[in-house]
User: Fold this.
Amino acid sequence: MMSRLQYLSLGVLGLTMAGLSAAWVTTPGYMDADYYYAAARQLVSGGGLSVPFLWNYLATGNLSLPQPAHLYWMPLTTFMSAGAMAVFGDSFRAAQLPSLAFTAVLPLVAAWLARRLGASPFQAMLAGGLAALSGFYLPFFATTDAFSSFAVIGGLALWLMARAPEMDAKAWLFAGGLAGLGHLARADGVLLLLLAIATWGLSRPRRFTGLLALAAGYLVVMAGWFVRMWKVTGGPLSPGGLKAAWLTDYNQLFSYPTGGLTPAHWLESGFGAILQARLQAAGTNLVSLLLVNGLVFLTVLMVLGLWRNRRTRPVRVLAVYLLAEFTVMTVVFPFPGERGGFFHSSTAAMPLLWALAPQGLDSLVEALQRRWDWQPEQAIRRLGLGTLAIAGVATLFLLATRQIVPAQQGQGWGQASAAYSSAVAPIRSGGSPQDVVAVNNPPAFWLASGHPSVVIPAGNPASLQRVVRDFGVRWVVLEKNHPPGLEPLYEDPTGLRWLALAGTTHDAFAQPVYTLRVVEGALRP
Assistant:
């Protein structure tokens, strides 16, 4: 048995790494995290589940702001951040706390799972250490996103649904509850429920009470959300999310209007384009699995651990989950999948993969022992500590190059949207607080300025003009990251008669950011 001191040391290590990353993650950092933090602020301030911004038009029910919140992303992170802010105050640091807590718990979960899979205490400590030294994931674990929570919830859900057939109905009840939490955290978390149902269907003996308990646990968590969505959209799930399956280009996620995103539109792109997009997504997601999830060198150990335990039900469930997520993020949603969807959703598999890596090290030592006269226990301990050291060096290197050094150069985490604080100055001096602004990152702009905002649509100036007219936009903030169809406007911000240049600032990379005023009466009818 692992001692309490060992578990405590893993918790301290996890909290230390979370705190070290959080020291440099002082803003949400990117649109997903901006959205969760902004939605939590709205909830805490009494705005309910509505937001004064719109980051895509896939599920737009009306042409005004505010809009119903979470018609694309699921709300668990918002709920948790809002709860922390209600207790500790309206600040990003308070909103971070749930993510940091899950990050600190991750090493304990990995170690506990390793023990359940037959690992020794040393191997379990190694698994927990790998979870704490999480490489590319560390800064994402520390911000207001579902990375760390989905890792803990998903990892426990996969293990419990695999073990539930050997236990009583309570196990299925908790497995259903975890699947519900996974779905409340991420839309593709519904795969956890589908996998749990499949596991129940293949179990022997198959008791109907187990299925009832599974459904009950899931609905306890999700029923309230289904009711809310039914009131808002007329169905239990957002209709906008499914439109992403018909994208033929990632930028179409921001297209307006979205009526063209149909199966017919998808088929018109041609079989060659459809196949190419999926082959490209497959390559990107495989590289992500190798480089990001496994830090290259850990991938070998994880695969060996999977093979060593291939006959155990938890490993089979894990393999099916990874295959299902890879398929969904490659075949069904290739564009969101290769742009971070698979990187995000695969976190549910990470606790079990970290738990299996030390056993993969055992297999490696056994194979090498046939060539060299090694002392296996001594070799495993030395190589295990060496593996942990490499993971630590890689994690600290990534932390330094991706967070610490850029922050010292004024280009750190979240600095890309820092220019919004300057870009809003002409709007405050020449407009009103209710003026709607079209911008690249509406949640971040609202956080920086308090102005209602909508996303600049994909397409050309005609697409932008339609959004301006339909949503009553009064200002446009155009930055380096803009749709290709607006490149001429970015090169010459005075080139359209219905937009007047009101101010120019620069982002952290010295690229110009233009604040453009919509000229009244200049729009075509």
User: Anything to note?
Assistant: The longest strand covers residues 499-506. Strands lie at 50-51, 53-54, 67-68, 436-439, 453-455, 473-478, 499-506, 512-518.
